[in-house]
UniProtKB/TrEMBL annotation:
Signal peptide coordinates: 1-20
Pfam families referenced in this protein's UniProt entry, alphabetically: Polysacc_deac_1 (PF01522)
Coiled-coil intervals: none
Domain annotation NodB homology: ranges: 87-276
Bias (Polar residues): 296-307
Its membrane topology: Lipid-anchor; GPI-anchor
Cofactor: Co(2+)
GO MF annotations in UniProt: hydrolase activity, acting on carbon-nitrogen (but not peptide) bonds; metal ion binding
Keywords: Carbohydrate metabolism, Glycoprotein, GPI-anchor, Hydrolase, Lipoprotein, Membrane, Metal-binding, Signal
Localization terms from the record: Cell membrane
Protein name, entry field: Glycoside hydrolase/deacetylase
Source species, domain of life: Eukaryota
Amino acid sequence: MVRLSTALVALALGAASTFASPLSSDSQDANLAVRRSEAFNNLSPGVRAYLETLDPRDYEIDIPDEAELQRRQVTKDNGVIYNCKKGRVAVTYDDGPYKYHELLNQKWSDAGQQVTFFVNGYNYDCAYDEPWVTYLRHSVAAGHLLASHSWSHPHLTQLTDAEIDEQVNLMETMLLKTVGVVPKYFRCPYGEYDANVISRLQNKHGLTVVQWSDDIGDADGVSAAKQRATYNSYTSGQRHLILNHETHKSASHTVADTAIARFKNQGIKSQTVHDCIGASGSPYKVKATPGKRDSTWTCAGTPSPSS
Ligand SMILES: [Zn+2]
């Protein structure tokens, strides 16, 4: 359990209440209070510290509704997402931000479709640096979804609970300061998890863990032709949650072009993971005004890249 200062709780609850529906009974009041408290407790210490510096009008904390809480209750320890709802498709890109990120922002935006980026804080480069901050902001502005892929891409099953928490905390703080969002969705590096990892991510941090239904194989050396063939096999009405890596040139160039052309031909539209699973509420735990670059925008002293 996280200990909070009274002032900080009041601040957070005040901000949240401006987005809550009007209450009509004491029991609804009590339920809302529980939901607010859970939503706040799910936030990283770094996120809470940053929000304390903002005017409450400059941020909003997503409070899960009853349906969302029930979904989590039912799937509390194994509610990992593997696919979209029937007939829906979500294209996802892991391991960025990387030099092809902006190209993917543009390609999918130009096609009128949204994708999800499962990004790292410190993998190929430090996400606090430019041009990554600008690219990540462009993703959100274009309606794409930013989700967490851990800070430094470690094998989570080999970490202590405190180290798992650090991976989440560093990501949440970085994305809040730079872009103004705290992700609600998380993909484990290498897709590796166990019961403890899931419990930590979903119960302590209020995250939804997302795997995939289809892997185009870019990270495993599958040829670009074969990657394109995967997309060209998709037909209207199917559901797919597709793993790609933005760090691979083929996936970010010709394969993305093929996917967009095929989707257009078949009347398929890639949605964000949040939309493709039919989730309610905001796709982010928090949305806020981003900060201004300062000395805390650094990867120095944090866990270094593992892959
Ligand atoms: Zn990865």
